[in-house]
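Follow-up to my earlier ticket, as requested here are the two runs.
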Amino acid sequence: VGHTARHIENFKIISYRGLRDLDLQDLNEINILTGNNNSGKTSVLELLSSLRAPSSLSTWIKMCRMTRNGSYYKGILNLFPADTSRNIWYVCTTKSQNIKVILDAAVQEVRVSENDVSEINGSDCQISHAARDGYTEAKCVQIQVITSFDEKAYDLYDFQTRMPKEESPLKIFPTEYVAPSAHADGSILLDEVMESPMLYKDMMRILHEFDDSIMNITKSGNGTEYMILSDKYNKAMPLSVYGDGMKKALVLLAAVVKAKDGILLLDEFETAIHTSAMNNIFAWILHSAQNLNVQVFLSSHSLEAIDKVLKCAPDLQDKINLYTLYNKDGKNLVRKMRCKEAIKAQDDWGVELR
């Protein structure tokens, strides 16, 4: 290809969740993040995902790891470091600029009128806060987002169940984040893949890694589900009846396409994929990312999966870095190794890469 997928060169996290002064330098086109549990791998990917639109409140809400009935108020506060002032701060370096993003939060005790509560939550809202004289006692987190491009301010109340309205956010990079369990929520979107003959062929090759009897994949008549035709059955069967490994592979396929000219973030990327299919699937992901101008970040705790990525595409090894994250004496440290250096350290010297 005649372009580079090295969109981000350095990424320094001053403060976010449990991370302090973590500096990822000289990022490559393909970057593997590993380390012990709670070393911050997922947090790094989350923060990278905010580069899509860092001044948008909805961007940060998506990072809250909320349960279905979770509170926006509590979710946002959990993003901020617990042992410092409420401040999220990172600096991203590209070839042309430094992008600085800062979030400040302050919690205030407030009194909100019943009319304002209804306007914030909708007319059908119900709140459990004590109301006196037509006012409700509540807490409000006041958020100020300062980026290199703009500034925004938001208020979130502890009774709030509806997202605040916001203007169309300023977008910086296309980012596509894939959670470990993304294959299980039934929201695989393959329309872009099915509209491209080349990508459709790639999809069929990936499907054959799991079942070589598959002949075709189409959408159901009402367009709500993907149907798979194979030699094994007398009729097309819904994708939902197939295994998690195949679904995860299709999720990864769709994610690479969506991330064109941007950043692909794969958290515990090997989840649900059997070892026998890893080489071909991982090699396809890496080569397709190159063709689509996508910078890739992958996190994993699996030595086997890391080894597969390091070795599955020998022609791309110069484009792969491995970053091992550590927590030591309350500090976040990182070890960087080039792909060939990591392979030699592991295979010849027995170095633990995680």
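Run two:
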Amino acid sequence: MNQGEVKVWDPFVRIFHWLLVLSFTVAWLSGEELETLHAWAGYAVTGLVLLRLVWGFIGTPHARFSDFAHRPAEVRAYLGDVMRMRARRYLGHNPAGGAMILLMLVMLLATALTGMACYGVEQGAGPLAMLSGMSAASGEVFEELHEFFANLMLLLVLVHIAGVIVESLVHRESLVRAMFTGRKHA
């Protein structure tokens, strides 16, 4: 570790992040064309999110929800400070980043659950196979919801990437590098 750097992101958070990037990308790109690959990538996303939820309560200090879950007023104030280029620097997630993480975890679960419901209704397979007796219209509703949540998640990913770029420029440090090394400037 270089002098002047501090460990922020533990190995679990970094591995989780990059496996989630890979799993979501595979799931989003495989769609209906490669249904088995799509389903397994979705299961991987689900498992990763469930592990991250547990880690949010028992993990290292900056991985805990208590470190980065802020009130909406704090998030708005932080975003206003970013627009004025005077945002406070955080070692862990800033209030906007923390809100984005929470929103993405919820969106990933919504995407996964509607995908499993769709798979259960239409294929009689997966953890929600017991839904196979539902009408075809129900399957279509789950499919539409699944596509909506997946596309909304993609939009959140793009906003997340933009936020990482802005934050990196405002504070003159590479947040992408930090997600590989686990270290940030002290």
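The only thing I checked on run two: The first strand starts at residue 5 and ends at 7. Let me know what else you need.
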